[in-house]
Amino acid sequence: MLSFVVLVVANTCVPSLAVEENEPKKLWDQCVVKISPNCALKIISQIFGDGVVSIPCCKELVQEGKECHDTLVKYIADRPSLIGNESKYLQKRDEVWAYCVSVSKAVSPA
């Protein structure tokens, strides 16, 4: 399972898979670097597999921002090997976001 997740993450950075050559670098520069690799793998694992996102990773995700989260997941879900289940992945993306926002608010100092 972990090799699948690593492969998916790696594929987001390969220019040959992109519509535009600079798109993966732009995604990487603007979004992926805003979250730790460990948390990125946990989030991707929950959306595309059976992983679980921890509260600290939820906090990182919320700090990363919804636009980055949506863009990165959509970009991965659009891969030819995953597009058949894209609607399922996009629903899980939204569920992870809602969960992370709720737990981040619950543990944040007032």
Could you describe the 3D structure shown?
Residues 1-18 form the signal peptide. InterPro entries: Prolamin-like (IPR008502). Residues 30-101 form the Prolamin-like domain. By secondary structure, the protein is mostly helical. Helices cover 67% and strands 0% of the residues. It has six helices and no strands. The protein has helices spanning 2-11, 23-30, 37-48, 55-64, 66-77, 86-107. Helix 1 crosses helix 3 (37-48), helix 3 (37-48) crosses helix 4 and helix 4 crosses helix 6. The radius of gyration is 13 Å and the shape is globular. The N and C termini lie far apart (38 Å). The relative contact order is 0.15. Residues 1-8 and 10-19 have low confidence and may be disordered.
Topology, element by element:
Layout: H1 2-11, H2 23-30, H3 37-48, H4 55-64, H5 66-77, H6 86-107
Total number of helices: 6
Biggest beta sheet attributes: none
How far is the first residue's CA from the last residue's CA? 38 Å
Helicity, as a percent range: 55-70%
Rg (C-alpha, Å): 13 Å
Secondary-structure-derived class: mainly alpha
Average pLDDT, to the nearest integer? 80
Fraction in beta strands:
under 5%
Summarize the helix and strand pattern as letters.
Answer: HHHHHH
Global shape: globular
How many strands appear in the DSSP assignment?
0
Poorly predicted sequence stretches spanning 5 or more consecutive residues: 1-8, 10-19
